[in-house]
Design goal:
This protein is an alpha+beta fold. Helices cover 18% and strands 32% of the residues. 35% of the residues are buried.
């Protein structure tokens, strides 16, 4: 095993110091501490809450990076941006992000393991670090970290709400206002455990929306989420009586329908974990999304109210 040694610069919890030294998450640092991989002045400490003080000598045994037990699969993958620290991919609608019961193959992670050749791994395992997730039926941009430092930085940006995430959504019914905000906590539904619902005892959830265009009995919105709760946009739009078109879980059984969920993660902005440079990515919606949208437009000859080319800047 390799090891890292440092002289502690300030009083702190042991897991905090290990996290900063090794550029890993607090939860991963706590696991390393519990596993006996951390010593202070040569003595093993196994409590994450142990207090180290300034000028203590801290040593961390780094675990050997092991191969991921998920199979790599040669699945077509749209890569919008890639460097030594991260990858931005465009997930198609219908693709699951992580392997799970009933979806052991054909997932985004299976595709990434095949496509990424310089993956150093996350938490001691050669696997892609999924920074945030998209529902199976939502298409669009996803950030993937190649190493622990990038994963920690991007995860912190999500937590601190400095990462900007914008979606294109087509909802049932026209909008009278040009913009609005839904600030309503979300939790798992008490009636149906497969659903999420607005619940005052749930986790805070904030969704900003802006009208791009009223359609025929529908509306195209730019949706900016300040939090990232499961099904957040879908639940919040339903609360406005404007469910996302094509939503078989939260949408009406009757009324305007679509062959896919009309929700697409369109734009991401974040600070690069290595350089600090602000990066903004754009991924236009796929052809099937645009085709459904065009049929619903009042003026089909007008330019589409969003970027139609993939861009990074």
């Amino acid at each position: 095993m390799q090891k890292k040694t440092t002289i502690v610069k300030a009083n702190a919890r042991l897991d905090v110091s290990v996290s900063e030294l090794c550029q890993i998450s607090r939860s991963q640092a706590a696991k390393w501490v519990a596993d006996g991989q951390c010593t202070v002045w040569g003595k093993v400490q196994t409590k994450a809450s142990f207090q180290v003080v300034q000028d203590d000598e801290l040593t961390v045994l780094l675990p050997l990076v092991k191969d991921c037990d998920i199979e790599a699969e040669d699945i077509p993958l749209q890569i919008l941006y890639e460097d030594q620290d991260l990858v931005a991919v465009v997930k198609p609608s219908g693709m699951v992000v992580h392997p799970a019961a009933g979806n052991e193959s054909g997932t985004l992670v299976n595709a990434l393991l095949f496509a990424i050749k310089d993956l150093s791994g996350i938490g001691g395992e050669k696997r892609p670090g999924i920074v945030h997730r998209l529902d199976k039926d939502t298409s669009g941009l996803l950030l993937v970290a190649k190493n622990d430092a990038a994963h920690l930085s991007l995860s912190n940006q999500l937590m601190e709400r400095s990462m900007e995430k914008h979606y294109l959504a087509v909802v049932n019914g026209e909008m009278k206002d040009v913009s609005g905000q839904v600030d309503a906590p979300i939790a798992r539904s008490k009636r149906d455990r497969k659903k999420m619902a607005i619940d005052q005892d749930g986790r805070d959830a904030i969704t900003d929306w802006m009208l791009l265009e009223n359609l025929k009995h529908a509306a195209l919105l730019d949706v900016h989420i300040l939090t990232g709760r499961t099904h957040q946009i879908r639940v919040h739009m339903q609360s406005l009586h404007r469910p996302v078109l094509g939503d078989v879980i939260y949408g009406p059984k009757k009324g305007a329908q679509a062959s896919r969920l009309m929700l697409h993660a369109y734009s991401l902005a974040f600070d690069h974990p290595r350089t600090g440079e602000r990066i903004r990515l754009f991924a236009p919606p796929p052809e099937e999304f645009v085709a459904i949208l065009k049929k619903m437009r009042v003026d089909q000859s007008a330019p589409l109210p969003f970027r139609t080319e993939r861009e990074t800047n």
